[in-house]
Design goal:
Elements (H helix, E strand, L loop, with lengths): L3 H11 L6 H8 L6 H10 L2 H7 L5 H8 L8 H9 L12 H7 L8 H11 L10 H7 L8 H12 L9 H7 L7 H12 L12
């Protein structure tokens, strides 16, 4: 049984560009139209497939920030029932506190839906680390989905930068403990490097 808050949010996701229906069809043979279908499917998938189905919720990152060790927890249900309300961000490039301060609609009576709508419509940068306009200029294909999603699809293979100041080659060269792959280097800067005031690029002061 899923929480009412989660089902309400899942219904919005299922009808929005925030759900990758291609992934749903690949797994189930059909599009996901109902909230309970989405919640059930999400719980059955492996972490990589979950990341593809609902890219704004990164399973490994969210488990770490929430301190979840139980593999049976449905992370999508947990995020909307507990994580969102308590300010636990679902992704390294999403900062709920930042979004609340820069997007007044998140102060509404239905902040979870306002959050999802902001992601789906590119209404605001989701964190200080992700500049949507900068990302849009790097994306090669025409946009049929939110900029955040399109950026994530191409970022690792193209070594794209989420903002003008984060240069991964510079960051790796300056700090030998930074992982080599794009995703781990990004997560390292967001969770460790910035807190330790490490320089992220040649333009960073």
């Amino acid at each position: 049984m899923f929480h009412a808050k989660s089902l309400h949010a899942a219904q919005f996701i299922a009808a929005s560009p925030l759900l990758d229906q291609r992934q749903a069809v690949a797994v189930t043979g059909a599009a996901v139209l109902r909230a309970d279908e989405l919640m059930d499917l999400y719980g059955l998938l492996d972490p990589k497939s979950r990341r593809c189905l609902v890219p704004f919720l990164d399973p490994d990152f969210y488990r770490a920030v929430r301190g979840i060790t139980d593999d049976t927890v449905n992370l999508l249900d947990d995020f909307f029932c507990h994580g969102f309300t308590n300010g636990f961000s679902p992704h390294p490039l999403i900062d709920l506190g930042y979004m609340h301060s820069h997007h007044p609609d998140l102060q509404s009576d239905d902040p979870a839906t306002a959050f999802l709508h902001a992601l789906a419509t590119d209404a605001t940068n989701p964190s200080p680390y992700l500049d949507l306009l900068h990302c849009r200029h790097q994306i090669k294909a025409s946009l049929a989905k939110p900029i955040f999603y399109a950026f994530l699809e191409q970022a690792a293979s193209e070594n794209l930068r989420p903002n003008p100041y984060l240069e991964f080659d510079f960051y790796r060269a300056a700090y030998p403990d930074v992982p080599r792959d794009w995703w781990s280097a990004l997560t390292h800067f967001v969770t460790t490097g910035d807190r330790e005031c490490r320089s992220s690029g040649s333009r960073f002061d």
